[in-house]
Amino acid sequence: MNRLESFFTKSEKIAWRLVEEDSVLLNLDTGYYYTLNEVGRFLWESLDGKKKLSAIHKEILDHYDVDPDTAKSDVLELIDNLLKEGLVEIHELPEEGLSSPAAP
Amino acid sequence: MNESKSFSVYNGLILEILRSFYESTPVLGTIVPLIKESQWGDIFTFLRFHKLLPIAYHVLSGSESWETIPNDFKQSLKQASFENTALILLLRHFMEIVASALEKARIPFYIIKGPAVALEFYRPSDLRPYTDIDIVIPFNSFGDAIAILNDLSFSSRRKSFTKEYFDSVHFSNAQYPGICIDLQWESVTSIWTREPFLSSKEVWDQIRLLKTSESKHIPVLAPMFLIPFLCTHLVFHHPMALLFHLMDLALVVRDNESDLPWDELVRWVQYKKLGKPVYHSLTWTRDTLDVSIPPAVLDALKPGVVERHFFPFRRIASRHGNMPEFLERVIKFPLIEGWKNKTRSITSYCEMFYQATKDE
Questions:
Q1: Which residue in A16, A18, A31 is closest to B90 by CB distance?
Q2: Shortest Cα–Cα distance, A15 to chain B (Å)
Q3: How far apart are CA B128 and CA B132, in angstroms?
């Protein structure tokens, strides 16, 4: 599946909090926790199942002063890691009726 | 304002962090440049001991001084805040599971200390560290509660429990070694008096439901009882009086200032013979953070002149590390009112020590 053209949702077994500019994600099944920096947090908060990853990439370019290619490879690397750790789920189609969890 | 005398060389920064958080004001930019490079390590140790690392990170990272603070200190502070948040997320998850199971089994309970205070009074709530979930239940529900915790993979190494004394029974989870649940039915006061506190009818009758999310509530103490409980806990619990307990008390008093039935609280505290710990805790809170405590309350509770001036409470409360437990108990001893209660406390400690040794 082409990840940039896919939709992503946060896994239900994840609890997360903002810690100043960063985020802490906790896998409730394993007890392992992960941290995301400000840009990673932006991506994480954008994973609502309604936007393609390519749209999120574009939003990152709009918000941060980063090189588009570097941003793309960083976004793909982060989403791969999130998938590998079971923190997000990938969907071919947008998730209708989903509401993005508010920042806790 | 004489509290700063007891805060050692970097008292200014520590007090500034506490006040900045309490008053939601920025840290003064004049203080950080005065800290010597060699002092940051000690400051970190002090903040960790007093469980103030998340508050310090929150306050300092939002200040103009942040850029001038050594990187090692900033990274350590940030890492400690991440770890604290992760642990709290996990503890809250288990608190909700256990609370839901107790509700389903119709076992009355309420949550005290860390999670209850954090969720109601701290903004953000994750800045208040805690390492376990303290649940109060009636003693006669203890067997049922143990069965529920066992079903949820929590177990205790304790083999026997004494109803007479404060008994916080510790349950841990083999899969999540850092997650602990303490079941208790009384406060530390039961070591020296048979007069109920946490188990008293008036406390149970006034339990409130605190909304924790859209659909979830947890039962917690009413402020009228929460304040004496925090004061007693602050003074008597081991290790005595860490600074985050001071912040707990300050926030609870401030947020309930206009509604608190102080007269009723004083009467109740006097009846329960808890005047000394409540007096010392409230005056310390007032002097350190300018918390508004009605003078009449302190007048009504104040101990004798010798104890007011010579009891080393503030020195102990702002210390830099643990002290021997025996010494701590000796220092606390005068705070127990009446020789009958004092005598009972000695007997209780001996019995509890014997019981613990037997269990091991």
A1: A31
A2: 7
A3: 12
Q: Are B114 and B125 in contact (CB under 8 A)?
A: no
A86 within a domain of the structure (yes/no): yes
Interacting residues of B88 by C-beta distance below 8 A, sequence separation 6+: A17, B118, B125, B126, B129, B130
Question: Which ipTM did the prediction report?
Answer: 0.88
Q: Name the region of B241 (left: φ>0; alpha: ψ -120 to 50; beta: rest).
A: left
Please give the domain boundaries of chain B with CATH numbers for all domains: 1-69 (no CATH), 92-221 (3.30.460.40), 222-360 (no CATH)
Give chain A positions within 8 Å (CB) of B81.
19-20
Q: For residue A14, give the H/E element and its range.
A: strand A14-19
- pLDDT tens track for A55-72: 999 999 999 999 999 999
With a CB-CB cutoff of 8 Å, which residues 8-27 of chain A face chain B? 15-20, 22, 24, 26
Maximum separation of any 2 CA atoms in chain B, in Å: 57
Instruction: Give the pLDDT of residue B212.
Output: 87
**A79 lies in which domain range?**
3-11+39-91
Residues of B with CB below 8 A from A28's CB?
A: 89-90, 93
Tell me, yes or no, whether A61 lies in a domain. yes
Rounded CA-CA distance B191/B173 in Å is: 28
What the block records as the tokens of B16 is: 């500034």
Nearest to B17 by CA among B68, B69, B59: B59
List of residues 6+ apart from B200 with CB closer than 8 A: none
3-state secondary structure of B305: helix
Across the interface, which of A18, A20, A26 has its CB nearest the CB of B86?
Answer: A26
Q: What is the model's pTM?
A: 0.89
Token couple for B179:
């997650």
Return the SS3 of B95: helix
Contact with chain B for residue A31, Cβ under 8 A: yes
Structural domain count, chain A: 1
- CB-neighbour burial class of residue B220 (10 A; exposed 0-12, middle 13-18, buried 19+): buried
Does residue A58 form part of some domain?
A: yes
